[in-house]
Model the fold of this input.
Amino acid sequence: MSVPSTTSSTGRSSRRRSGAAANPAAPALLALALLAAACVSQGAHDRAVESLRAELAEREEETRAQARSIDALEAERDQLLAEIEDLRDARESLQTELAVRDKALRELRSTYDALVDELEADVAAGQARIEQLTEGLSFRLPQDVLFPPGSAELSANGRRAVAEIADRIRGRDGLVEVHGHTDDRPILGALAQRYPTNWELAGARAAAVVRVLEESGLDPKLLEAVSFGPTRPLVSNETAEGRAQNRRIEVRVVPSPTAPLAQPAGAEAGAERTPDAASRPAADARAAAGAERGEAGDGLPDVESAPPAQREEEAPPPEGEGAPDLDAEAPAPARE
Done:
């Protein structure tokens, strides 16, 4: 009984060996299968790595863009802070300037009140008028009070009136503008050789007032002489009274924070001198340019030097306005 069992076991072993010998490619197939599986896993890994790298690059670009945006915002913030600082400085500067102007206006108001009291008699007589402007003061003086007829030289009363104005405004901050005005009557006769038109006459008279202001101690750099000629009448020139009102000198004091109205150090107040063109304001030189022609003459002719045929007698101006000036004495039919 044992023999058949031995034979059967031996047979199974022989069959296994023969089966293995019959399929010699099995190991190679197994290795190939393992290699294919490995290749599939490496490809998926490479694709995953590439995707992660692309995502990382995108995130890095977003980070750089955000950094650039932050830099731009910081630069804008710095610019806004600088602008705010500039605005603060400008506000402080404006506040300082406003305080200076307020102080100047208060001083001018005080000057106005004092001058009204001091020149009360002249104001009451109609020989002067003081006005409080929005910014500054205006002193209006009839030319018939300041100048002799046909002359650009201040009379004694005229010099006194101008000197009183200078005394009240000396040492205060401001610019002083002297405006010369005439009526619309042309200049005739010998006087026309020196002053061809009312422009030259008004400029010469304004310059004469400026010279007295300078001699009274005001800084010439803050003085201006301006000729308006007949272009800005107060009233109609149809009557002698109207023409007398239009012939006037206006001294305007305008606040300025640049410098006080005092004479520079070393200058002698009240010195009797005539400043040259270099020391006068440019406007003074322009206004007086026409008047300076013929300065070497023997003096200005009087009203009566005009030929009788070229003028006619006019009614005298109201009391207190002085004698009529030559530029009011040539009636329209006799103009040349």
